[in-house]
Amino acid sequence: MADVLTSKKKRVGLLGYAFKPMWISLRTLMRTSFAGGKPNTLLYPEEKIDLPDDFRGELGLVMDRCVGCESCARVCPNKCLDMMEDDIGDGTTKWMPALDLAQCMFCGLCVEACPSTALHMTNRYETATQDRNEKIFRPHEWALKPEDAPDQKPFPYPELYEINCTGCGACDRACPHEVIDMVSIPGTAKKRPNGTFGPEKKIPIFDYELCVSCALCVDACPFDALDMLPRSTTASDPAVQPQLQNVKVEQTKQEVSA
Amino acid sequence: MAMAEMWINMGPQHPFTHGLWTLKVKVDGETIVDAEPIIGYLHRGFEKLCENRNYPQIIPICDRLCYVASMSWDHVYVSAVENTFDIKVPPRGEYIRVIALEIQRIASHLIWLASFMTDIGNLTAFLYAMREREMFIDLLQALCGARMTYNYPRIGGVSQDMPKSFPQQCLKTVDFFEKRLKEYDYLIEESEVFRIRSQGVGYLRPSDAINLGITGPALRGSGVPVDLRKTDPYSAYPDFDFEMAVEKDCDVYARYRVRMNEMHESCNIIRQALKKIPPGPVLGKAPRHFPRGEGYARTEDPRGEAFFYIQADGTDRPYRVKIRSPIFVTVSAAPAILRGYKVADVPSIMGSLDMCLGESDR
Amino acid sequence: MADPTPTIVAPKGDKDYSYLVSPSTVQEQEIIASLKSKFPEVEVKLKQKGRLECVKFPREKLVEFCTYLRDSLDFEHVTCVAGNDLKRAWEVIYHISSYKHRCMIQIRTELPREDPSVDTISQLWGGADWHERETYDMYGITFNNHPKLERVLTPEGTDFFPFRKDFKLLDHWKIDWENKGKRPKPEPMVSTDTRFGDGNG
Fold first, then answer.
1. ipTM of the assembly?
2. Class of domain A156-257
3. Residues A198-253 pLDDT 10s
4. What pLDDT is recorded for position A17?
5. Residues B190-229 as b or e (16 or more Cβ within 10 Å = b)
6. Which residue of A15, A24, A56 is in closest CB contact with B145?
7. Residue A99: closest CA among chain C residues belongs to which residue?
8. Residue of B194, B288, B348 best to disrupt the A interface, most CBs of A under 10 A
9. Is residue C58 part of a domain?
10. Would you call B57 and A75 a contact, using CB atoms and an 8 Å cutoff?
């Protein structure tokens, strides 16, 4: 009975009972204890583990950089960011995110969405408190000094992929500032059978001086014709260049201004 | 004289249940006559949760599906979305994903080894496995900045490129780990106690394993050579040359061997991927607006076949998300494996299946 | 030392599955042709390599179709059984895969709104057992002849089906800034689901 199961058994004999496993344990003990050995553990409250720079710890807000675009509050999966007016320290108030850290799950999506590098995940990880209400922060309460945060990256701005654009004007309607202007392209009107001309094709022209990089136009575009790109990379980066049809847009801009 | 049969509750708080679940066993003396697993203590309504979040917001909660193999669950979700909407991933992104997945597989198997060894009674191996896992957690932390809930893959690639020092650190760790694996052979396999408790215990017939829907190391431990990385390749896996770990003994020991061999093969894949990795961008262009459609992806999780089905209705949220968790099916087959063994074999048999309740309760 | 012999005996001569290492030569088109000849009214499409698709499957034929799939076409493995609430109807989605031919078939069956029941396939594949129980648990779709159709994930005695579209969820916590020390209780979400689709792809 049961010969199928027991036939392949490899017996390791008396040595296997104690000596071989014990030899490994002894060797490890010697390796970590004597002769310049390194222990495998840390004495936690005294010593701390080295963390990389991009470690995702407690969130911090650089108030000077925040532009109040609400990108972070829109992207947060747990709705732990809430926008409110708050004092930035010198008497003026600003529209900034407040944080409920007790609901934060440290995913870092808000940091990626922030166009102005105002949000930063610090290396602080010891965030336990007695009461979870102590983890609700008004904007100035979770503020960081600018020198603690990484350097500010160039703002991304909306760029047009002209092939996808139908001139519907959804971006114009979504824009909270008057950044976008729908401009007709001369000569694109189609001739109707009765001889008259239809409407000319429109494309959005951006006034980047007014733009706060809130990406609402990108979200509103139904045909994915807009994308947020750092302004400096569009000219030089060869990976981005062939996808963009900016040349035409620049030309029409000049024509309009002339 | 036959003794009276009776039901025994093992769990929800029991040393052998890694997680929160109950195994009701019906015993006749010491012999198990019938068993009934009861799960659901960790049910969070995950699929309903996904229906109320938009597509990028689902990635961080996929981390919470299985807390020891977060990266592979992120990857299943992301590749299901990519299959549904035909999104292209740049080759460098695919390679980084494969590297991260294989590191995650080793880390997950080490957690299994640690918990399995405590079931068997080998506490030294538990400490060793946790020590080695720390090195791989450090690697993943260098990649994405978090230790367990990574949120690393994105729809169309990965969130950031790997740091400059990463390939060297990774190769060093992998080389070091392969030496340590040899130590495990001495520590665990040469131990007679381990062999008594694993060899010839938990016999699972191959045809039963297939019919009951068991996948992953438990299926390969029964001699069925099915590994989705080979048989239904996804991501960049066709570019690599690796062996499928198959054992024919069908018992607990075979499942143990499969996982140990898989760790070797994962090291092998990581080395090849670091050698061949092409330059370029890591994140492709993902649409902001998702059309209607449906699609699915299946991948080889550390525990078996993971599957994500997505139905999109044109809004920013999915209409229906269905997750197939390998352990949900495997634990349903537990009575078939347990029947006929002694109560003392339960920790050994269930430990060899690598329970994870986060994914099976969802 | 006591002999650790188990009390059950492994049956000798179980099937050898090592042939699964190399892919079979059967093409997807041959599987489709075979299904077409047996079930002319069922429409099976090839979506991409290794992915078959079958929509609007009549629910009366399901067990017959699945038996043919398992016995004649070597579909050994049920990957998933999923329920769905289409608002106008119920739906059960089967994903059945074949290790031998390395392909997967997706079957979508619509059930009428007033009668959410379909025959079980857990008699054919044991792996479908708990998937069907879960579908019953979450959607209230009953599977005829199922050996044990009970709640799996929710506790016994639950009198609602949580994944139905009319089930109300709790809203997110809102911080009460006037009274910072307190968190108000989340209120039931009054169906904010303004989506237009019915999930028909």
1. 0.85
2. alpha beta
3. 777 788 887 777 777 888 888 888 877 887 777 644 444 444 444 444 444 454 45
4. 64
5. bbbbbbbbbbbbbbbbbebbbbbbbbbbbbbbbbbbbbbb
6. A56
7. C175
8. B288
9. yes
10. yes
